[in-house]
Fold this protein.
Amino acid sequence: MKQLLQRQLVKKFSTKLSLLKVVSVLGLLLTSLTAQAADKLTIGITLQPYYSYVKAVVGDKAEVLPLVDAGFNPHNYQPQPNDLRRLKQMDIIVVNGIGHDDFALKVIKAANRDDLIVIEANKDVPLLPAMGQSVGDGAVNPHTFVGLSTTIQKVYTIANELAKIDPDNARFYRKNARSYAAKFRKLKHSAMMTLGDLDTSGMVVATTHNAYGYLLQEFGVDVAAVIEPAHGVEPSASQLQETIEKIRNSGIDVLFYELNMPNRYVDTIEKATGVQLYRFSHMTHGPYEADKVEVEMKENLDTLVRSMKFAAENTVKSVAVNKDGK
């Protein structure tokens, strides 16, 4: 009887020890995880494309926090008190910095934070001049996120700047940047191979917004006209008529307009000129998603390839008509 009691006491005591060990180990794990979370940088972004860039570079090594909830229009957004509250959580913020997120620059200035690190993603990007009736002298095209080469350059800039700030993860950031850049190089190569030896030298295009120049220039396509006086602002009746006349006189055969905007006047232009319509994504609408740029860039490239094939076929038809006319 005495031996049985002893065995029970030993078993009970051992169980308590095991539980204490489990609790102790769990406590250490939680402490470690909490410390790791506290050590992570919080990196802010101002526009949807930059969410994709930063997520691709940092992976799980940092938290990525949008300054503004999805669903806003960066062209007319006015800073809100909640923007300042979010900014306080950030160690770093990545900005476009050349005209597309001026609202964010106002918030950063108002925060008066000397400790906040601002990464200007476009600082190494060769910029195009802005086009359109409302742009001032010296204005640049801020839509670098729509281009392939400009996207790659910005991702490298972000990775290099983060490597300086967080040298322990420098190799990780740069490796991720190279992998991400390779995706866009493959997209461009695939599009170029699809086009082959297609003659698009006669392709003349117009756009409803000064947003697509960086993408179009990579494929040798020049923009002859920008229709909107400003983003999301419909042209007046006289401006619309002037545009219709310009399209007719310039031989413009393709009009690119924005996927997420209600461009009601586009139908009027199509009927009056017979110009072919194609829609591009502006990449600053919808939710913040890690694969947003990759997915929408692919869709834009598919659209561009279709438009270039149409323009080439149109040129062949025009040549044939002229020959028959002679």
